[in-house]
Amino acid sequence: MSAAAWVVSDSWTMTRRELAHWARQPVQVVVGLAFPVMMLLMFGFLVGGGRGVDGEYVEFLVPGMLVLTMAFGLEGTMTAVTQDLGKGVIDRFRAMPMSSSAVLVGRSAADMLQSAVGLAVLAGVGMLLGWRWHGSPGAALTAFALLLLLRFAMLWIGIYLGMVAGRPELVVAVQILVWPVGFLSNAFASPASMPGWLGAVVEWNPMSATATAVRDLFGNPAAASGSWAFEHAGPLAVGWPLLLLAVFVPLAVGRFRGLGR
Fold it and tell me: What is the pTM of this model?
């Protein structure tokens, strides 16, 4: 086979390896799918919110939760990478006659598939709670594509940070940083309801750009604001993930090539 065919074949083998873990660790998969559902129910019914939001809060909340689910997936990616490093699995793969890129491609393909399943589950629960999209099917598909683009960018950040951390216990340190960044967005409330300086920070959060863009595409209530970031949420929802990919894909590839040296 050609070199490209070997890359595809090896990448598919690595993807199937990651998918096989689902069958062997069903509890972990179920917990990963159930956690964002619990968050949605908690903020929708227990915590409440919606300050500065015009319209039904659940229609504002669900797109925000979809965005946070894509961002918090970074932790699962980091854990998987550090576990493989700790067990020496990646070192064995690097010693085998296979495409070196297949390890990273397989990791990213499996994580993207899991993210797509998670999106479908959370969107289904949101519809049971009363959430609906009011735009065209094409606009809805574009919204889901933006969500997966954000996940793809966060995925490569997770791959890189996982290789930097090296050990699963160090993932906790990153979690401490991921959660505040995730909540420092317009997922749950409008920046207009926050102090001026905090609202400005929230509006420029990449997750806020994606949340605002997908709300517009779904025809859901938006966190009304007259800022430049709000008015250009669509381009920012594409630009932020592409910028993150431009930074972290080369870093991850370079780090992977340098393992064991």
Answer: 0.85
